[in-house]
Fold:
Amino acid sequence: MTALPERTDRKLGLVIDLDTCVGCHACVISCKGWNTENYGAPLSDQDPYGGAPSGTFLNRVHSYEVQPPEGAAQLVHFPKSCLHCEDAPCVTVCPTGASYKRVEDGIVLVNESDCIGCGLCAWACPYGARELDAAEGVMKKCTLCVDRIYNENLPEVDRTPACVRTCPAGARHFGDLSDPASDVSRLVSERGGVDLMPEQGTKPVNKYLPPRPRDRLARDAAEPTTGEIDVLAPFLEPVAETPQGFIGWLDRALEKL
Amino acid sequence: MHPAPSVIVFTSFSGLGFGLLFWLGIGLPAVTGWTAFAFFTIAYLFAVGGLVSSTFHLGHPERALKAFTQWRTSWLSREGWAAVASLIVMAAYGAGLVFVQSRWPVLGYVGAALCLLTVFTTSMIYAQMKTIPRWNSVLTPLNYLSISLGGGALLAGQITWAIWLLLAAGVLQIAAWLRGDRALTDSGTDLASATRLGTIGKVRAFEPPHTGTNYLLKEFVHVVGRKHALKLRVIAITLMSALPVLLLLLPFTHIAAAAAVVSHLAGVLTARWLFFAEAEHVVGLYYGAHAGKAA
Amino acid sequence: MTHHQPELDLSPKVSDEVRKTTCYMCACRCGINVHMKDGKVAYIEGNRDHPVNRGVLCAKGSAGIMQHNAPSRLRAPLKRVGPRGSGEFEEITWDEALEIATGWLAPIRETAPEKLAFFTGRDQSQSFTSLWAQSFGTPNYAAHGGFCSVNMATAGIYTMGGAFWEFGQPDWDHTKLFMLFGVAEDHDSNPIKMGIGKIKARGARVIGVNPIRTGYNAVADDWVGITPGTDGLFILSMVHCLMKSGRIDLHYLAQYTDAPVMVNADETSPQHGLLLRDEDGKEQVIDRRTGKLCAFDAPGVRPDLSATYEVDGVTHRPVFHHMAEKYLADTYAPEAIADKVGIPAKRIRAIAAELARIAFDEAFELQREWTDFRGETHKTMTGRPVSFHAMRGISAHANGFQTCRALHLLQIILGTVEVPGGFRFKPPYPKPATAHPKPHSGVNPGAPLNGPHLGFVHGPDDLALNEDGSPARIDKAFTWENPMSSHGLMHMVISNAHAGDPYKIDTLFMYMANMSWNSSLNVGGVMEMLTDKNENGDYVIPRIIYSDAYSSEMVAYADLILPDTTYLERHDCISLLDRPICEADAAADAIRWPVVQPDRDVRGFQSVLCELGAKLGLPAFVNDDGSQKYADYADYITNHMRRPGVGPLFGYRGAAGRQTGRGDANPNQLDRYIENGGFFISHVPEEAAYYKPWNRDYQDWAVQNALYDAPQPYLFSLYVEPLRRFQLAAEGHGERQPPDHLRQRIIDTMSPLPIWYDCDSAGTEGYDIHALTQRPMAMYHSWGGQNAWLRQIHGHNPLYLPTNLMRAHDLKDGDWAHVSSPHGRITVPVMEMAALNPNTVWTWNAIGKRKGAWALDEDAPEATKGFLLNHLMHELLPPKGDGLRWSNSDPVTGQAAWFDLKVKIEKAEQIAQTRPDFPAQTSPVGKGPRLLRWKVGR
Ligand SMILES: Nc1nc2c(c(=O)[nH]1)N[C@H]1C(S)=C(S)[C@@H](COP(=O)(O)OP(=O)(O)OC[C@H]3O[C@@H](n4cnc5c(=O)[nH]c(N)nc54)[C@H](O)[C@@H]3O)O[C@H]1N2
Ligand SMILES: Nc1nc2c(c(=O)[nH]1)N[C@H]1C(S)=C(S)[C@@H](COP(=O)(O)OP(=O)(O)OC[C@H]3O[C@@H](n4cnc5c(=O)[nH]c(N)nc54)[C@H](O)[C@@H]3O)O[C@H]1N2
Ligand code: SF4
Ligand code: SF4
Ligand code: SF4
Ligand code: SF4
Ligand code: SF4
Ligand SMILES: [Mo]
Structure:
C-alpha cells in the first residue's frame, strides 16, 4: 500500500559518521554481495568484463572536497544508501503499491513481485537511493537488511545490516532512532547529526554525523594567534642553546631521575 | 533527466489524443458517422498509442494492471484510471456518434472533463516531483493542458480556438522555461544541502562512487549544452506555436492545415524532449552535475 | 484506513554451511566465513573470532566471490606456441608440464644451479619457497620485499628489532595521538581502519603526513601535506626541537637503548666509531651508581647518558653525545628546513610540542608489575600515548632507509615504543637483527645452497660477493651497491638477466608477480627484455616458467605456465616462520583450505613444488629412498620440521594436538585448525604485554611458544653499528673494499645515526613535479581489475593535479595531458584536486591494464583510459656525468624508489586512448560473459 503509515512503531536506520569514514567501499561490496544472494532478485551487472560495465548497487560511496574559507581543503568520504524517510516520496508515487513503508520499523521496501519497473519512485527520491535492475526490470533499494536484522538463522550479534557489520572503521551505526536512549540517538545528539536535503521535506531517518573540525593544531605562521600554536609554544622552551649547555642540562636532569 | 523516446512519445501523443477527444466531447466539431469515426480513430490512435508506448519503459509491462491499485496516493495510478475512464466514456460517446448518429451531450461533457483530467494527471506525475525543481510548479499542468487543448483544437479543426490556445501554450511554455531556468537555484537544494558540508566551506564533488556508469547516471544525469538548448527552444516554440498559428491565419487549405498539424507535432516533440533533457534532478548534485547552475 | 503490507519471511535460510578460512584478496590475511549453498560459494563475510579483522571485511574481501569465479582464471597448464608476449598458448597436461620443467631444471642443478633464478611475488609461503630454492642450490631467490618495503623492514629491524611493516601496530586501546606517515592503505588494511575507528570513537586524534589528503589522511584531524621525499628532514627537525627543549624520555633512553653505549673515538683506529664491547661482545656503558664501565645488561645497572670514558688518551663518548651534537645543530632548526619540506616552521614546532605534550603530560600508569632483563621489578607500566605508523610513503624513496630510521629515533626519544599507548611489536617480533640469519650464497652444483638466501648483514664480511668481488646473486643483493638488501632486489632480476650482468641465467622461474606490467619500473623496457633475442634468434632470457592463477599480463611472456588454484581451492599456511597473523597481544597463525574443489585442471603451486622438488631429487623434498617426501602442500604443512618440534604451524602440535609452539607433527592438525575457524592463537600474558624486548616474562613466553629458542633481550640501536662498518670499509679499513666509485656514497648515506639526504637525482633537471601513486582501498594491484564488482568502482584512473597546476597548464577536469620524465612520456586524462601538495600529482596504482589481459574486452576502460605511471620510471637513473647509471633505489637496501619520480606536464589534445598503447595480447581463456546475475541459491 503506497500510503505512508501514520506512524511507525520504531524508526530503524543508520547513522553514518563522516568524521571516520575512510572511503574504503567495504560497505558497498558487502551490501552487493548480501543482496545479490538474498532478498529478491540478484543485483545484476551489465557488460561486467567489457567496455562499459554497470550494475545495480544499493549503497555507494561518494567523495567531496570542501574548501574552508581559510586553510587547506578537506576531503570527505560520503556513503549513501536509502535513508528510510518518514515522509518517503518514493512510496506515495508508486502506482502499484510495490513500494511501502513498514509499520513496525519504518523500513521502506519494494515488493518485487508487484513492481512494474516504472521508475517513478527513483524519480521521486532526492538521494539516488533506488536503482532499477536492468536484468530483472524491478526497482532495487536498500532493505536495511530486513532479512538479517530479525533473522533467527543468524547468531544474535549478526542481526545487523551487512554494511554495518563489515565497516572496518566503525563509521556505520544501526539502531532505533525513535528511541532517544538508543546508541544511535545519543550519537546523533552528541555529535550534531544532520538530515540530508532537509528542504526536500522527506524527513530521513538515517542521520549523518559531520566531520569534526580539522587542522586545528597549528595554522599558518601568517596567523599566529588563531591556532592553538601559542598555547603549545612554551612546551618547547630550549633548555640550553649550545650542545655544551645541553650536556650540562642533561647532567642535572639525570640527577633527578 | 534522460529524454527517453517512449516517454516523449507518450506524453506528446496522448496529450494530443486526449486534447482531440476533449473537443469531440464538447461537440466541436459536431461530427457523426464516418467523419466522427475518422476523428475518433485519430484521437484513439494518439491517446492509446501514447499510453502503449509509455509501457515500453516499464520493466514489467505484463504487470501494468497493478498500476490501477494506488489511485489514492499515486498520480500515475490516477492517470491510469482517468485514461481508462475517459477512453471508455468517450468510446460510448463516440459509438453513439458513429453508429447511432446521435450525440449524448452529458456523456460528451463527462468524457471531455475526464480527458482534461487525464492530461492533468499526466502532468501531475511530473509536477509533483520536488526532486526536479524545474517541473515542480503549476506551470507544468498549465503547460501540458494548454498544449493538449491547443493541439486538440488544431486537430479538431477549431481554428480560432487553436490560434488562441496555441498562442497561450507558447506563452506558458516560455514562462515554464524561464521559471525552470531558476528553479533549481530557487529550490534551495544544492550540493551544500545535499551533503550538509556547506558549513565547513565550499563543497565540490571529487571522486564519483564508481568509474563505471549506473542507472542513476543514465536516467537522471543528462546534461544539455546551454547553446544547444537555446536553439532547440527556438525551434520548439516556432514549430509548436508560431508556425501553426501563422499557417492558421493564412486562408484555409488542407495542405496548410496538415502542415500546421505536422509542425505542431514536431514542436511538441521537441518541447517534450527539452522538458526531460533539461530537467535537473537533484540527485545529479551528488555526482557533481549542475555545478554551474547551482553556484 | 488500515495499512496493508506484504508478509515477509524475516528469517530466510542464510546458507547450508559456513566454512572458515583466510582471505587472500590481499596480504592482510583476514579471517572469512564462506557461506555455502548447494556446494557453491554464496556469500563471504568476516570472521568475528579472527584476531586480524574481528568480523569486518574490506571491499576486496567481500568481492572474493567474483575473484574466485573470474572468467580470467587459468584452466590448465599452458605451453607457449606464439612468440613471447603474444599470449598464444596450447593447453597441456600436468605430466607434460612437469616433464618440461624437470627437463629444463635438472641439468642446471647438476652443473650451475645459479642459472635458475626463482623469484616469488606477494605470496605467503616464503619459508616454503625459500626452502625449495635452497634445496635446489641456487643463490638466486627472493620475494617481492625488495621493491615493496624493505626500507621499512630493515630500518625497523636494525634499529629496534621490529618494523612497522606487518610486524607492529599502535596500542589502539590507549593511544591518544596517532601520527601516520605516508600510508594510503598498507598491508594491515583492516586493522588500521579498525584502529582509526577505535581511537576516533574515543575522541583521540590523528595527524596524517602525506602529500595527498585521501583515505586515512582525509579523516586525520590534522593533515600535513609534506613535499615528497622530505619526511626525514621534518622528523629530524622535530627531534631537534624535542632534544633542545629536553622533552625526551631520558630514563627510557638510558635503560632500553644504546644511547649510553660508548663509541670508540680513536680516529686512527679501524674500530673508530664502533661500539665499545667487552670480551663477550656486549656493549659497554658507564654505570651511574659506580661510575664504572660495565656490560649494558649487568644486573641493576643504571646506564649513564652523559659520562665519558677515557682510555689510552682517547675520550669515548656515549651515543647520546653524538646525537646531541648532530641533532642540536641549527641545520635542523624548523626555520632552516621549512621551505624544503613545505611546512611552516611554526607548524613543525607546534606538532613537536603536541607530541611531547601528549607523551609526557598525558602519560599514565598501567597497574601491571613486570620484571626487566636486568632483574629489576617495576610496579607499573608507564604509558606514553603517542603512536606512529608509516609505510611506503617514506620507504619508497632513495632516502627511505634513513628516513624510516629517523622516525624510529623520534619514537624512541619520546619513549613510546613498546609502552602502553605507543607502538607495539607483534610476535615473532621483537627480534634484533643479530638474531636473524645472515645471507648465504655458497653454490655447490647438485647440492643445496650453504644456508638461507636472505638475512641481515653486519658488515662487509657478510656481503654476497664472489672471491673476485663480483656479485654472487643475479639481483646484486648484498653487494656494495646496496649492502643491506635483506629482501633481495626482485626488480633488478629481469634487467640484470637480460644484460648478463653479473652473469647470464638459463631459467627464470616466477610466481605470482606481474613483472611485465605493474610490478616493474620501466614496463616497456621489461617487455622488450623478455622478448629480446640474441644473434642466434634465441631469447636472451632463454626460459621462463611462471605460475599465476589468472590470465595476467605476465602470463603472455612465459614459455610454460603452471596454473594455480584460487584462494578458496587450496591449502595455504600463514606461518610464524613467515608472515603470520599475530597481533601485539597474541601470536597467531592460520591456514587456507579447499572450501571448494577446483573445476579446472589447476593445482596449488606449493603442491606442484612438492612434486617438482621430488622429481628433481631436492634433498628437502625426497625421502631417504628417493621417493617423494610430501604428497602435497597439506602434507608439508603437517609434517615438515624446521627445527626439532617446530613446524609451519605452531598450534595443536604433538600427536594428541595439545602442544603449542613445539611438539611432534600432529596428523590431525589441519582439521583442528579448520574446527577452530582456520587459525590458532596464543595470547601474550598481561604482564608480558609491553616492554617486550626487555620483559623477562615476554622473553620466556616467546621461548615457550617457539618464537625464540632462548631469551634474547637487547637494546634499541639508535646507532646502527653495521652501517658504521660499511663506512669504515669505504674509508679504507679492512680486507673487503668497495669499488672506488661507491666509496663516497657509502660514507654519505650509511651514517650510523639517522640522517636525511635529498633524493633528487642528477639528470632530472627540468622535471620538477613529484608524481606518486596510491593504493586504492577497493582494488588490489592488478588482481582487482578482473573483478566484476570492483572494476565498476575503479575502472580507470585520472591523474590528479593540484589546483595551481591545473590553472598553470590551462587544464580542466577531463582534459588530457602529456606527462613526461627523462625515461618516457604518457598521455592521460586529468582531474583537479585541491587537498594536495601544490607540487605533486598522483594517480591510483595499477588500474591500467594491457589490452587482452584478464579476460577483459579490448575496449575495457582499464586499457583505454587507465594507465600506469610505471612507464615513466626506470630501474636505473639517467646517466651521470661519469657515464655511469646508478640504480634507482635506496643505496643502503636497494629498495626501488617508486616515489622519487619527477615529471613535467603539458596540455594535450583530447584523445580517446591513453598512451602508450600496446598491442593486445591474445587471451588464453577467452572473454567474460555479457551479463551477471549471480545467485547460487535460486
Ligand atoms: N607505480 C607503482 N608501481 C608499483 C608500486 C607503486 O607503489 N607504484 N608498488 C609496487 C609494489 S610494493 C608491489 S608489491 C607490486 C605489486 O605488483 P604485483 O606483485 O605484480 O601484484 P599483482 O599484479 O597484483 O599480482 C601479481 C600476480 O599474482 C597473480 N595471482 C593472484 N592470485 C594468485 C594466486 O592465487 N596464485 C598465483 N600463482 N598467482 C596469483 C595475479 O594474477 C598477478 O598476475 O607493485 C609494485 N608496483
Ligand atoms: N587495497 C589495497 N591494499 C593494499 C595493496 C593494494 O594494492 N590495494 N597493496 C599492498 C602492498 S603490496 C603494499 S606494499 C602496501 C602499501 O601500502 P601503502 O604504504 O599505504 O602504499 P601506497 O598506496 O603506495 O601509499 C603510499 C602513500 O605514501 C604517500 N607518499 C608518497 N611519497 C611520500 C612522502 O615522501 N612522504 C609522505 N609522508 N608520504 C608520501 C602517498 O601519497 C601514499 O598515500 O599496501 C598493501 N595493501
Ligand atoms: S565501510 Fe565504513 S569506512 Fe568504508 S566506505 Fe563504508 S562507511 Fe566508509
Ligand atoms: S531515501 Fe529515497 S528511496 Fe529511501 S525512503 Fe527516502 S525517498 Fe525513499
Ligand atoms: S518502479 Fe516499482 S516500486 Fe517504483 S514506483 Fe514503479 S512500481 Fe513502484
Ligand atoms: S542496510 Fe543492507 S541493504 Fe542497506 S545499504 Fe546496508 S547492506 Fe545494503
Ligand atoms: S584486507 Fe580485505 S582483501 Fe585483505 S585479507 Fe582482509 S578482507 Fe581480504
Ligand atoms: Mo608491496
